[in-house]
């Protein structure tokens, strides 16, 4: 797993304290769609090194986090910038949609 | 060439993995291309109780065993999605989404199927916000809430019952008259006895309602034509599967109107060297055990085909004598008579030529390669290169003069 996993504390720090532009995939082990989307993000990550963060939350280990965003399913990719929620992509998303969304969040 | 294989299998579910085991065992250079997790649909199945030798096993565990078995026979794996193919030549070309190009002598299609999308308002926009297709993945997000299940097949009813472990209530929307479900009897009985399961009969779903999250569904009664709304927080769609064969559309491969691939007993499609196995072919029973059986059959037939191909390439292309490729069709009498004449002539007149008979009915790719449309036809090859074609005259002298 090359995406850094976040628990609630880590989540607070990265998103709200550091205000880093990043995405967080909410995922779980027993979900076949997640197993397609997570590797796609892992491959994408190096291209954005230093520019955009890629993180991972396991919803079974951190129930509180998905309840906070009232998520209704996995996988979901949530986007953040300057400590603000910037929208999400749900289900089996393609690489291109993630790239587009990142560009939108970074305002490029 | 690094990217060229004897056998490429598209799809790594039970059908593809079984074909891989047989292909690897037969010492074919075999590659499985699979876009998702290995194991396909079976990998999403919590519990399998009808695969011989396993009284009860989880889908992922069983599929791990299948994969290990294939690896044991040196099968290679590639995690990619195939987006286009070119099956028109003897060397089959496969292209992946990331732009990789691979080739194989034979290809087995084991792409399985995917959930059908109804394309009703709200279904797409609320996906992941209450609209779901996989109970194992998403049921727990509906703890204490009201959930609607659309469909009444095995999957709908069994998954619906699984959701009752979390949800307060599960309402199943059924097309049929009261009491009629499409699923097996045991599941139907269990569902009727489950206090958390309710049913709405003679109905279908028209729209998923809600802005940010699912807030309800719009239900249409097929008998009265009237519409009504039902409040819920989640909708699970189990309205059947469609074969994952769309990327094959322009390949010349035959499919039925729904996209399933028809095959013969040997899993052969209408294209030579291309086979279809498992859930993506026209068949009666779509289960792991039948998928495995298909895979085994196709790999054995493909092995024979590859052997013949290799034979052709080493004996015909590299032959010292000139080769007369004689195309015939048992249904065309003239071609059979001509064949007898030519064979007689060659056996009387020495050593320069060797005849290789090609049955148009089975060797379609050879016929395609030399663009033969009418039989009889004869192509003369020297070291594999075409040097001329014969005028297939029934006049022995005329024929003989062409060969001197
Ligand atoms: C909920 C549920 C419960 C079930 N329970 C049982 C049971 O108890 N017992 C039983 O025997 N059967 C059961 N089945 C049926 C069984 O899972 C299927 O019959 C079986 O998995 C079919 O195998 P397959 O190899 O043909 O296809 P699949 O398992 O669907 O595998 C196809 C694979 O091909 C890949 N693929 C598709 N297109 C491409 C492409 N273009 N490029 C690369 N890869 C591609 C897919 O990602 C997938 O991994 C169940 C099915 C479901 C949905």
UniProtKB/TrEMBL annotation, chain A:
Pfam families: Thioredoxin. Residues 1-107 form the Thioredoxin domain. It comes from the Bacteria. Keywords: Redox-active center. Gene3D superfamilies: Glutaredoxin (3.40.30.10). CDD domains: TRX_family. InterPro entries: Thioredoxin-like_sf, Thioredoxin_domain. Belongs to the thioredoxin family. PANTHER family: GEO12009P1. This is Thioredoxin family protein.
